[in-house]
Write a structure and sequence with these properties.
Shape: globular
Structural class: alpha+beta
Strand order of the largest sheet: 1-2-4-3
Order of helices and strands: EHEHEE
Oligomer: single chain
Number of domains: 1
CATH architecture: 2-Layer Sandwich
Helix content: 25-40%
CATH class: Alpha Beta
Number of helices: 2
CATH topology: Ribosomal Protein S8, Chain: A, domain 1
Length: 84
Amino acid sequence: MLLPLDKYPTLDVHGETRDTVITVLKEFVKDNIKLRNPVIIIVHGKGQGILRTEIHFQLKHMREVKNYHLHYWNQGVTIVELNV
């Protein structure tokens, strides 16, 4: 799914640690469920993949998340589909 990234709510977690990204991510998902946004964007960067790995682990275990995947052209971005 190729989406214009500026159309959807975006969370940029550059500079966050593995521990703090969990809280930020859960709050962002919860807020967007309340707002009934079906798609959100998470910008974690490429780097060593520490944030991406933690984010994907958390998303896999959230019942509010229908699906998630890396952006086709930018591997530093995850697209998340929510159950709204």
